[in-house]
Structures are given as C-alpha cells and as structure tokens.
Amino acid sequence: MGLNQFILPGYAVFSRTWTSAFRRPVHFTFSLVQPLMWLLLFGFMFQRTMGGISGSEEDYLRFLFPGVCVMTLLFGASQSGISLIRDMQSGYLYRIFRSPVHPLAFTLGKLLADNLRFLLQALILFFIGWAVSRGEVNFYALPACLAMWFLFGVSYSSLSNMIAMKARTQELMATFVHVFNMPLLFTSTIFIPHKAMPEWLESIARWNPLSFTANFTRNALLDAELPLYWQGGSVILFLLIASNLVNHYTIQKLQP
Amino acid sequence: MLEVRGLDFAYGETPVLRQLSTAFNEGHFSALAGPNGSGKSTLLSILAGDLLPRPGSLICDGAEWNPRAGSSKRIVGFASQQFELDPDSDARETMQFSGALFGMNPKATQERIASLNPVFGLDELAGRSIKKLSGGQKRRLHLAASVVHSPQWIIWDEPFTGIDAQYSSRIMEFLLAERKSGKGIIVCTHNIRDVATKADRVTVLRQGSIVVSDEPGRISELYGKWVLVATGNATAQNKVAEMLHGYAEKEDKSRGRTAFFLKEKLPAGIVPALLDSVQDLHVVIKAPGLDTAIDFLSPGSNRNTE
Fold first, then answer.
1. Mutate to test the interface with B, among A4, A24, A98 (most CBs of B within 10 A)
2. pTM for the predicted model, two decimal places
3. What's the CA gap between A71 and A210, in Å, rounded?
C-alpha cells in the first residue's frame, strides 16, 4: 500500500467529501442551526428551572453549552452515512470501488473530511455558547476537547456509515437518525447533570457515549469534576472498532 | 485472453446466466448482443467485478482471475449503463477524481484528459456541473472517466446510447485505435449497426446462454434472413401470418408488430397482394444481414429490426 493505492486516492476521497458537503448547505445548516436553537431556546427557557439543579441560572447556560457542542457532533455524525447512500443510489460508489483504492483509504478519507467539518461546527457552537453563557472557560483545554470530539465524531460516523451500507435507502437512514438520536440525547448528561437524574436514568447515562464526551468537555473547559463513566468511553471505542470492521467487510462484498 | 467458464448468476430466484462459457481476446473488438434480460449486462458486470459469479470462474491469460483484486482493477475500464456520476461535482473534478482513484498524479491525469478530449469533447464539458449536462454529455463523461487510467480491457455497456453521430464516430475510432494497440474491447449494444462492421466477434445471448459466437460475416451468412415486419392491428397481423404460411420460418410478435423471418426472398407479387387484401397494414422488408441474423437467433436483440 503506497502512494498510488492509498495516499493519492485517500486524499482525493477526502477532498471530494469536503467539497461536496459545502455544496449541500442544508446538511451543514441542519447540524449547526439545530444545536444552536437548543442552546438558545432550551437554555434561556429552562435556565430558571434548571438553575436550581446546576447552581444558578447563569450556571445552567454554562453547564449546557459544552453539551450542545457535543450535540452538534451527534447530529452531524449521524448524517454521515447519507452521503454514502447518495453515492450508492447514483452508482458513484461502485465507480469508486472499481478502482484499486484501498477500502481503508476510502474510509479514512471520508471520516477525516466529515469529522473535520463537524469539529468546525462544534467550534462555532463553542464560541457562541461561551459568548452567551459569559462564563470563564479554560481555553488551554480546547485541544484536548477537540481530540475527544474527534474521537466521538469518528466513532458515531462509523456507526452511521455502517447503517447506511446496510440500509441503502435514505428513508431507512432517516429512521435510524430519528430513532437513535433522540433517546441517546435524552438519556445522557447533555441537558442535565447526573445528580439530577433518577437512578435508572443515570445507570443508562453511564453507558451513553454522549455522557462521557459531554462530561469530559465540561471537566476540561469548565474545570468541573464530573464523573467520566468508563462504560460510555468503552462504547465509543467499541463503536469505532466494530463499525469499521463491519464496513470493511461490507465493502469487500459490495454489489450493486 | 479473458475467459469465463460455467458462469451462473441469478437475481433472487430469477436465473440470468446459465453455465455460460466464452472467451475474449486482447487486440479484438467483441460485441455482445441479445434482448433485454438475456444476461449481457450481468456478464459485463461480472467481468468488471461488480457482481460475484455463483458459481463459475474467471480466467485471465490462463490463470484464475479475481476482478476485485487491486491489480485486476487497474487493467479493466468499465462503464455501466447507469451514468455513475456525482451530481455534486463538475466534469473536470470527475475526471481528476477518477485519475486520482487510480493513483495517477494530477499532471498525469491532465495529460490523459488532454489526449481524451478530442474523442469525448471534454473541453466542452470542463467546469460544468453534472446536474446541468445532457444525457449524451453525461454518457461521454462517464465513458471518458472509465478509461482515464488507460486500461488493458475496455468493457462498456450500451456506450452509444444518447450520443450524437459525430461523437459516436469519434468514440468508435478511439475503440478501434485501442484495439490496434492491443487492448481488448468488449461492448454490449442493442444497436448492432453501431458495431457490425467493426467487431471481430459477435456473441449473441438468449436467456442467459450463448446462442452463437462468431465473426459478424459468418453469422450474417449462416443466419441472416429476409424479414418482413408487419405493423397494424391484431387482425391485420393475423391475416398476414395466414398469407405468409409456408414462407416464414419463424415469427416474433413484440412491440406491437410481427416480424416474419422468411425462408427465402418472397416471390414478386406477395407483398402487393398483402397490401391490397389487408386493411391498415404497414410493411417493411429487410434484407439479410447481421441485424436480422441476430434477431432471428435471439428475438428482441436489435433496435434496428422495426
């Protein structure tokens, strides 16, 4: 595996994925505007109610905005597979795999392009959230957060790509997005801290990769001391490895 | 040489290829003909590695061949019937991306595009979005992208559909030049006149099996028939069938007309008698040739027998 089979084709896939995303502003907007709406509407609407849970009204917005950054990654990454389905339906994916491009080069090129875009969106939300919450933030921890966001994003994108390769239709993919995302969101610590959850919900939140990522982000940026559930962290790694193994196998057997 | 041996393939419960065995030579232009559903596209897709034969084997130059191996992919340039273009890209990006997928650096890709430009008219398409190209323009781009890496085998499914006469002629000249340089050409077409005089071999499929595979001239000589095509209402066509009883070797009723494959040229007076005695009848007579031979062997193969 050298320049011809890996690097050049991999870069071409990266470049194409990156460019295509910005030619379809709907998805870019959807995965940016929706979390922003949650932050502004949800944050201001519930700051008095939730302020009691997090300490004060201002504290709730400060608590919420790192979670919303992670929510951006969730919405973006879950849509990752849709471009694969479009490529399957147009036949372009079969053209790609008729070439000697290594499946790993294709996967890495696509994941990298998709997730750099998600990081960009999350950063935009971060600065908006920081401005709205008007609290102190540890900017030196931002690189660590970016790394953690990237890991989560790649993991969830891989799951999305795996579902897409099996689903093959946008309708089924949309079902996955709706059926998975909302329960995942509301059984995590994105909106409320673990201490405000009933016991049964907290036991689910422990396994939720969103909780791990959101708490990591809060601990890093806000110098909080929230629990980092190893269960959620292990789910991130599991999704990353398992989804990509399945994808690699699926690509080998891909037929129109 | 590219060989297929004992190929079977089915879509679900529907068999498409049945124990098909044949060979294609480098430096030869091979044409596949047959009606819809005869297995032409499936055979090409298997050769290109899109579909996996079950069972059956593929042999290249005497050795077991896996079209999905990286080295195999480099030597095949396949263009399916579907355009397989990215609607979010433009024509230039499509060609550059196709080159990059085969590990070609940008300079090499540019040089190749420049050499393909006169054949496929790529300059005319240049920075235009795929969404804004006509069907014929998309087809040209699709074909060009399939050969950007100068493959040893060019395998095209219905390449001339939607392309105007000028570009069809240029593309045919391109294929002939590639053949002359030792490349293997395998083309599937419904319009056998596109390739009749140029192909070294024509393989006719019917219901997943090969009916004949030979030089066009020999097929024409052995199987070419006089054909009378009658168009009209059912009563008129039935009347014609009655009147041609004893003259016709075979009938093909499809697409609202009946084609009568005649044992020999009709005696003078038969056709005027038909036209006089049958109302609302339109008749066309076709002389023996490759197209009538193919339609005789596998009815419905050829758009030209109308």
1. A98
2. 0.86
3. 8
